[in-house]
Design goal:
- The complex is a heterodimer of chains A (286) and B (307).
- Chain A is mainly alpha-helical.
- Chain A has one domain.
- Chain A has 14 helices and no strands.
- In chain A, helix 1 packs across helix 8, helix 3 runs parallel beside helix 9 and helix 9 packs antiparallel against helix 11.
- Chain A starts with 21 loop residues before the first helix and ends in an 8-residue tail after the last helix.
- Chain B has 307 residues and is an alpha/beta fold.
- In chain B, the strands form 3 sheets. A 6-stranded mixed sheet of chain B has the order 6-7-8-3-9-10, with helices on both faces.
- In chain B, strand 1 and strand 2 form a beta hairpin.
- Classes of the chains: A mainly alpha (286), B alpha/beta (307).
Amino acid sequence: MAVYKRSYKGYAGPLTPGWSRFLILTRFSYARLFQSKFLLMFFASSFFYPMACAAFIYVSHNLSFLTAFNIPASEYLDINGRFFYYFCNVQGATAYLLTAFVGPSLISPDLVNGALPLFFCRPFSRLEYVAGKLTVLVCLLSVITWVPGLILFAIQSSLAGWSWTGGHLWMAGSILAGLLVWCVVLSLIALALSAWVKWRVSAGALVLAVYFAGAGFGSAINAVMRTSNGSLIDLVQVVHTVWSNLFRYDAGLEMSPASAWIVLGSACLICLWLLARRIRAFEVVK
Amino acid sequence: MDAIIELNRLSVRLGKREILKDLQGSLGGRTIGLLGPNGAGKSTLIQTLLGFYPPSGGSATVLGHDIRRATRNIRTLVGYMPENDAFVANMSAVSFIKMMGELSGLPPEAALERAHEVLFYVGLGEARYRMLGTYSLGMKQLAKLAQAIVHGPKLLVLDEPTNGLDPPARQRMIRLVREMRDSGEMHLLVCSHLLRDVEETCEEVLILKEGRIVHYSNLEQERRLNLRFVEIETRGGHPGNDGGFADALAALGCEGIETSSGRLKMTLPLGFEMREIYRLAAERDLQLRRVNFRRDTLEDIFLKAMA
């Protein structure tokens, strides 16, 4: 409309389908997030380890390269469950740091400035809001976790041949399941804390606190009570148990895989409950 | 006239408190004013109509859609400007309005075009690339109005639109509301405790008190009636006796004559000739000191309803 024609007019054009509108939040959130140069640098640095792993896989299939440098080729160059277990550990920890940086800025700014009524007075539900914000983190974490994991598996498959691929196809499933579950758990924790702690810095600190406090309290409970159940609140040990089970690698952890899965499921449910309590157009003061 | 909002024994309970009690009525004006003292339930009624709170009893429809079953349809057709601060601080106004347009269903290109249009329309064209967090209170109110109209709603709900505005900003907001009303593209529901705002913009008024409707008034009809409503002050004749002046006026079809020490208030019948009043007064040797065309103001109506 020309500037001189400042009169109100309605809109009678087409509308987008309702099912895809949660992705609008994701798109706008990415636009805001990647304005930060620090985030961009951290995100780029998250690919160093996968690239090192890719180089490792290449070297393990080109022993002549090692012998040229008089380096003995030994059994630790084997690409197996242990290799991908350690890949998960490193990328999982990187994902945690990225979550602590990105997660708090997703919901708390909307809560601080009372923007939620503006979202929910439109044909846009609370579920879509959470799905939109969750997609931001899950996609971002996926790009640095299971996506490079599957690329590494594909590189190994192409170099090792069909017989290796056929015998180790379960590893691809383990990479996808193990890391995707971790991405979802991290995203839900970050969103729940972001929804309850309005100050961004505090929310970020709390995400990290879940990591360290869980490990600390878990060890303390184990030592004082002479039990191993304290590890159930140690999220790191829980997810390591899941990964060691998925990659058929004995990492010497005492927790049973079933308990670890139950703890992860419970953590997700608690986070969803916290989000359902908080993500409302208006708070009802009873 | 089709009803824009129909209330059918609507009740809302928040916690243990019943905020809205058995609201019943049908509103169909181009602009509807929702009046009431603080805590009367005005904002709760709006938020219930938008589906934020579930009714504890009864039902209501907005633009023909039931608030329990068709919340999404209602929200597609309604634009809402909340009372309190509502924005995303670290976004420019144009990005924010575009996002809100897209969430309402506009395709990205159309949303961007409309975002620029509505920001120019509300008077924020020059500041549209500034971060919303840096806006003054008046500008934030205008940005809230812009997000409410970006998708071209059929019903615009304004909750205290002039809250915290200085007189020039208030005038600008009232002018915008009138312009939108006169564009004929949408209906407006204006919730305010400022009688002047409602009187200047609304055709219908619903007054709430303690969660109940205490008065409904069609201001437009009242304004038309004002032209036939006369207040007369007489002097002369015998004290306490107007010589049958009131009776004579009643015989000519004047209604609702109230007399008190020489003052008469009445509604004239259609086609009534004003010279009849002068003739009847002259016949009784009464002096006409004042003839006013005046009916109760909204303030009079409001104070009566609150009493």
